[in-house]
Amino acid sequence: MATHIRNQLKHHDPEFVKKIMPAFRVLKHYFRYEAHDVDRIPTNKASMVVMNHGVIPYHGFLLTLACVEQLGLYPRGLGAGFLFDLPLVREFFLKGGAVNANPKNAKKLLESGHCVMVAPGGIYEALIANSELDRIPWERRTGFVRTAVRAKVPIIPTYGEGIDKAYYNSRFLLKKRIKILEKTRFSLPLIAGIGLLPLPVKLDHYVGKAISTKKRAKETEAQTVKRVHRTVLKEMSRLKNQATT
């Protein structure tokens, strides 16, 4: 396992990222994407950037583009495990800087000084994402906070407005598909856009202020995780309200 993790971390190729930037710019134009307050992402130290997921987190690719163009920063992404089981897809994500989303990979990247991007809602959020989703469904998602606390890095909350509208996402047999996800860690959303292409909705990405993960005096790790998690959810809700009002 350790060797597999190290191999994933070594695949990142900034030159490959530069080569695929034109495709990201086409995507930016398609969605009329705008990133707000990108300079809140630190360039001189490690950080964990978190975002809502949507069916497919196109805004994550586009925030990467904004970081490269505006900050000269090449973030590393955490992706769903199945992406690294598909040969061509696997190489694309690995060379682009993404790795399988697990605590060991995340901690190693953070301890090496990287900016790490993750959508904590993962496949579960992809299943329930729709234009009427009125909350950030991370109530039971605390692993990302624990990883940031242990790595002693700030969490940067971000919210992508419009990403939940990029597809029509059916709720047909939703409870059954969620149960399948709980058992297998994989399930597919039932979606429609322009065929499989997303709808050309406008995407606005709001970056919040950094949230410290430092332990307070006499706090246990569990207490710190609970407090920081609560703060992250509160800030994500604030960003969502800012985006929609």
Provide a descriptive summary of the structure in words:
The chain is α/β, with parallel strands linked by helices. The chain has a single domain (2-240), classed as Glycerol-3-phosphate (1)-acyltransferase, CATH 3.40.1130. The chain has 9 helices and 9 strands. It has helices at residues 2-10, 14-31, 58-71, 87-95, 103-111, 122-128, 143-151, 174-184, 221-244, and strands at 34-36, 47-51, 76-79, 99-100, 115-118, 155-161, 168-170, 190-192, 204-207. The strands form 2 sheets. A 7-stranded mixed sheet has the order 1-9-6-2-5-3-4, with helices on both faces. Strand 3 (76-79), helix 4 (87-95) and strand 4 (99-100) form a beta-alpha-beta unit. It is globular and about 55 Å long. Residues 1-6 have low confidence and may be disordered.
